[in-house]
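Translate sequence into structure tokens.
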Amino acid sequence: MEIDLESLKKQQIELSKKLNLKDKINIDEIRYIAGIDTTFLNPYQNPTLAISSIVVIDIKSFEIVEKVLAEKEMDFPYVPTFLAFRELPVIIEAYKKLKIKVDVFILDGQGILHPRRMGIASHFGVITDTVSVGCGKTPLYGKYQDPPNQDLAYNFIYDPKTNEKIGYVLRTKKNTKPIFISPGNNISIENSLYVIIKSLNGYKLPEPVRLAHNFLSDYRKKLMGG
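Result follows.
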């Protein structure tokens, strides 16, 4: 499959003009938070089956209120900074199945911590006009210093070109690697961090994302005959 990366870059730049980094909702009234995760039946094969899960929890009780899965054959390869073009088609299929009105979506991936401000969480938030936050397990873009080795320690992440604050590196638990937090869309930089901290339940990852990952892993094992 031939990919015109310059054309895709232009798409990302155009979408970034629609970004809203102000709070669309009252952050104190958030109740339903969804985690989104995606995997592939064989990530080293192309085309392959993409599988996406969304798990919604009630943040007051941390109970699951809805979970959905979607599958879609994908032939877009993994290309750094273009993850949305590989994963979003199946994520949108899962998103369409949701019945509950979600207040905030947390995606396993970046928001504006991206050279064109259009990581998968931002891309998803813009095209669905939802409140979204990026929660990446590895750094993609920005300069930062590792936070101290203690629970909930964080530092700002800055754009290396403009020196703007664009996110946070957060160590959710002592003796664990940090995660990388940034707004996706319709939320401020400060409150993207607040949402993640509010969603923690004793694990490294925010609970909705952790549950979406586990749901996905169990389903993939069944598909693989495990």
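Note: The first helix runs from residue 5 to 16.
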